Amino acid sequence: MTEPTSRRPQWTALLFSIVLLLPVGCASLANSPNTPARSFQYPQLNDPVPTGDRYYLLVFGSQTLPKQPRYTHTWITFVRVPSPLPGCKAEIEQHTISWMPATLKIRMFHYAVEPGVNLNLHESLKLARNEHDRISLWGPYEIPSGLFRKLKIQKDFVESGKIGYQCIDSIGGAARDGNGSNCVHAISDADATFTRQAYPLTSFGESASLYVLKQLVERGAIKDVGTKHNFLMPILDLERYPIVRREYNPPLIPGPLRFGHLIGIVGDVSP
Questions:
Q1: Burial of 32 (C-beta count, 10 Å sphere; 0-12/13-18/19+)
Q2: Is the omega angle on the peptide bond into residue 140 within 30 degrees of 0, that is, cis?
Q3: How far apart are CA 195 and CA 262, in angstroms?
Q4: Rounded Cα–Cα distance for residues 250 and 260 (Å)
Q5: I want to staple 205 with a disulfide (CB 3.0 to 4.6 A). Which of 63, 95, 179, 242 is the partner?
Q6: CB neighbours of 85 closer than 8 A, spacing ≥ 6?
Q7: Which pLDDT does position 261 carry in this prediction?
Q8: Among 128, 270, 271, 260, which residue's Cα sits nearest to residue 202?
Q9: Where are the domains of the chain?
Q10: What pLDDT score was predicted for residue 17?
């Protein structure tokens, strides 16, 4: 696979990482959007009786080389494969949370909420390719039915018009009014266990995607990260994209104030 062309100065990523450290202390005080997904723990939404349906999660991250904050993205796709009726082919149900500014242009230091848009899976992939990003994928992993339903509640909320987009959402309008999220927090705000401080802004692009996955694994929502359910790749029409398949290697140094996060700011998850 040919790697995306590097065409932007590397020092801007380091500058961005330094600026991001300034509002980190305020992250736990920032108001998060009041999503109904936070009202449920995923086991509460599991099927009370097994139905034969199976559920899967794909975690994506994209970034340029070298990594530039305004050209990075994190999104997830979650899939239900129903148990087919005799003689019938199962029709899958798929959803994506891929939160971007409606302009599709990320303004890193714009501290007001702007209109957002939730892209579907292929819109997200095409945008990454247009920006010459490298695209990474973790999964597909099997997940419980309750997590699928919890994420669907979050997707419906993101698309409800009740929130907008803000790149650094721990300060400014989003933090004050609780009405804005960046791409990572549009996913992680469904997590009632942690404030936004648990999802440090110093991780972005592939690092942020891996951190979201780490939270799901540690909560037992993904029990088998060693098995990738690759039958979904052609069904979702993913084989025509130059996607880097990733193994789950969790971040070693968690916490928003640790220098360890800075180590990967201008680098990548792996070559």
A1: buried
A2: yes
A3: 21
A4: 13
A5: 63
A6: none
A7: 35
A8: 260
A9: 11-263
A10: 47
In this structure, what are the phi and psi dihedrals at residue 221, rounded to the nearest 5 degrees?
Answer: -75, -25
Going by C-alpha positions, the residue among 58, 172, 151 that lies closest to residue 107 is: 172
Question: Which one, of 119, 118, 114, 117, lies nearest residue 174 by Cα?
Answer: 114
pLDDT at 23: 46
Q: How far apart are CA 73 and CA 63, in angstroms?
A: 7
- For the chain (271 residues), the mean pLDDT of every run of 10, in chain order, is 44 46 51 91 90 95 90 97 75 96 93 97 97 96 97 98 94 92 94 65 82 92 96 96 94 45 44 65
The three-state (H, E, C) secondary structure of 103-146, written as one string: CCCCCCCCCCCECEEECCHHHHHHHHHHCCCEEEEEEEEEECHH
Residue owning tokens 């992680």: 188
Do 189 and 38 touch, CB atoms closer than 8 A? Answer: yes
Which amino acid, residue 140? P
pLDDT of residue 49: 85
**pTM score > 0.70 for this model?**
yes
Residue 117 burial (CB count, 10 A): 16
- Determine the pLDDT at residue 1: 41
